[in-house]
Amino acid sequence: MQVSRVNKVFARLGRFQVKFRWLILLVTILVTLAACLGLPQLQMTSSEEEWFDDWDKVKIDQAHFNDVFGSDDGYMVMVRANDVFAPEVLSAIDRLSKRLENEVPYADRVVSLTHNLSIPIANNEGFEVIDPFESGIPADSAQLAAKKSLIMSRESLVNNIVSDDAKETWVILSLKSYEGGIDFGKDSIAPFARNVILSDEFKSDKFEMLPTGMSYTEMEENEVISRECAIRIGIGFAVMLACLILFVRSLRGVIVPAIATVGGIASVLGVNAWLGIIGDESMVALPVLLGMALSVGYSIHYINSFRMHFRRTGNRRESVINAVEETGWPILFTVITTIASLISFLFAGIRPIRWIGGISAGIVFMVYLYVIILIPILMSFGKNAKPDPTQVKAAGATKADILFEFFGRKVCRHSGIVAAISAAIMLSQIPGVMNIDVNMDYTKTMGEKIPFVTRLMDMLSGKLGSLYDFNVMIEFNESDALKDPANMKRIEALEQKLGTLQLTKISGDKPRVQSVTRLVKEMNRTLNADSTEYYKIPDAQDMLTQLLFLYEISDADALFERMDEDYKTTFIHIELSGYDAKKIVEDLDSAKSYAAQIFPDAKTSIVGEVVNYAEMNGKLVNGLLRSFGGSFVIIAIMMILAFGSIKAGLIGMIPNVAPVLLIGGVMGYSGMPLDMITMIVMPMILGIAVDDTIHMNNHIKYGYERTGSYKKALLLSYREIGKTMGMTTFILCAMFFVFIFSPMGALHNVGLLSIIGLAAALVADYTLTTALVYVTKPYGREKRNKQVR
């Protein structure tokens, strides 16, 4: 493909734009307004539910669990004090329990020390289930001590509801099932719970209340993400304007990219809203900032080219046409390759990642359209000027351009050494890449600088606190299967196995594993003179059936929280001490294996937050490989086609592997985790980094067609676009620099990795790209008799 021929097509496009500039501006304005009218309907979510398609087994199992046992959403408040049985603390717990039950929408049942705490005790008829503080908190210290002693004597409660040192206790609010998923919960339920928990009534130096819960935490996360996105985008826009003022020093050069940025981003998000597509608010800042950065980068290529010709000729319209002629094709090609890289996210198999790829590709394309339409048209308005005699002689080059040409001479002279050093650096990153840790740990993704994450970590450090858990659901085929002692003992055996998993939380000396067997054993003990010897499952089926019947008529709500009313389905709840991607996958595999071994005649399934995270880990690995592999293949094919040579195309890809390897090496060597946000960096950087490679290779090929000499072509390229490449990369890095100051761990990592990758890509293009072209001569033999045209 002859670059000079392609450039002539863009020259005709430039003339068309100048001739019909008013009509083009009018159409652009009308299209923008139509698209932006959809913005009020824009919907965003950060729900983890969006990671799973309806047919995913994880989601199907979770939905089935919810159908049997109700909503898995609920709120928990950890109460800390020197003694949670102190009268003032119990009074606060009682008031909190009642207010949560009365004031929170969809509240079902609160369980706390003072509210709905079910304890079986013996009586003349056998036993009864009592709530120790149902009649209120006794003023008499002896009575209070007796109730405390009763509660602390129950193995099913100690280190589950209350810690063995009586310094921590839970207030647990379960919610009724509700429509609308976790988004409805965080928007329409959680704020009411927060208003109660954080009210002045429950602020005291005698106790501390720490809230948590699925939709409660989602609410807090959503607020942090919304605030961080607004801050990053706002600062990013200010950085963009500052860079334009610094480099362009032209009113039109500042205003036009700003308009292109706002117009391109707003129109794409507006169309997204018109189509009813739900976006991901935890990632939306990335495509918006990407759109800002690329808008400025594309604009500077046009503006610098225009200025070079305008200084040399003084003819405004011809300079506009010449700028479109020289920069139109390489910018379009960079847009196509960037879009191809981003579209590869569609192969990831993860809904939010697919959205981020699609919306980013749309923004890149629309920003390009706005730039290619507005820059040439608005630059065409104005008067001509007299050519600068010094610039005519220097072909429009500045001192900085001459400096880049001098650098190019050094690279050509030492091209072999440059290639060898680059290869050594790239190879040194491979061990780091192989050591990347895929980890969906919520606390690391958000970062411990976030206040609510700090609170959650503080809770996790206590005896009762846990952030992650999962459930093993067991379904028998026959009704009343749970009235068989053999089945109950098998559940107990599975509990014991699950208690040995690597991440199962240990409180005191007991694993935090709970099931209906705890209730059964407490009842059996109660009916046998409260002897701890009988804290076990009875051997006789009649006795077990009687126990379950008596509990059902005494406190059916407590019983049927753990099993269904047909006595055929139950679950075991396992709480974890923390999150480790590798260990959790191993633990879940072990849990599945144990369940299958102990219950070959029943259906078993594992559900819960960590199951979702483990599934996400697998999706991340596969998604990264698919998206990055897809990006690499697509861009390589396009480079080969564009430059008309397999050798030239592959040479163009080598410098773009360098920044990706460097990013992977930094992540692996530093222990930076690959999570749902950082996974998009590598394909994105590949798509952006290839821009400078295309500009450099295109200019070299164009220079070779004009001169027949690789050295002259290289030096022309350094002189004509070396400065522009540096400026655009500087602006891109400056835009991503705003992420580094985010307290969100993942956004901080994205900013750091993007800067490292973009800087590495620029250095590779300044050195490795030109060195490889100079050594391999991919466009054919040199033609010494040609002159610069």
Automatic annotation (TrEMBL):
<dbReference type="InterPro" id="IPR050545">
    <property type="entry name" value="Mycobact_MmpL"/>
</dbReference>
<keyword id="KW-1133">Transmembrane helix</keyword>
<feature type="domain" description="SSD">
    <location>
        <begin position="649"/>
        <end position="775"/>
    </location>
</feature>
<keyword id="KW-0472">Membrane</keyword>
<feature type="transmembrane region" description="Helical">
    <location>
        <begin position="230"/>
        <end position="248"/>
    </location>
</feature>
<protein>
    <submittedName>
        <fullName>Exporter of the RND superfamily protein-like protein</fullName>
    </submittedName>
</protein>
<feature type="transmembrane region" description="Helical">
    <location>
        <begin position="624"/>
        <end position="646"/>
    </location>
</feature>
<dbReference type="InterPro" id="IPR000731">
    <property type="entry name" value="SSD"/>
</dbReference>
<feature type="transmembrane region" description="Helical">
    <location>
        <begin position="355"/>
        <end position="378"/>
    </location>
</feature>
<dbReference type="InterPro" id="IPR004869">
    <property type="entry name" value="MMPL_dom"/>
</dbReference>
<keyword id="KW-1003">Cell membrane</keyword>
<dbReference type="GO" id="GO:0005886">
    <property type="term" value="C:plasma membrane"/>
</dbReference>
<keyword id="KW-0812">Transmembrane</keyword>
<dbReference type="Pfam" id="PF03176">
    <property type="entry name" value="MMPL"/>
</dbReference>
<feature type="transmembrane region" description="Helical">
    <location>
        <begin position="327"/>
        <end position="349"/>
    </location>
</feature>
<feature type="transmembrane region" description="Helical">
    <location>
        <begin position="725"/>
        <end position="746"/>
    </location>
</feature>
<feature type="transmembrane region" description="Helical">
    <location>
        <begin position="284"/>
        <end position="306"/>
    </location>
</feature>
<feature type="transmembrane region" description="Helical">
    <location>
        <begin position="752"/>
        <end position="775"/>
    </location>
</feature>
<feature type="transmembrane region" description="Helical">
    <location>
        <begin position="255"/>
        <end position="278"/>
    </location>
</feature>
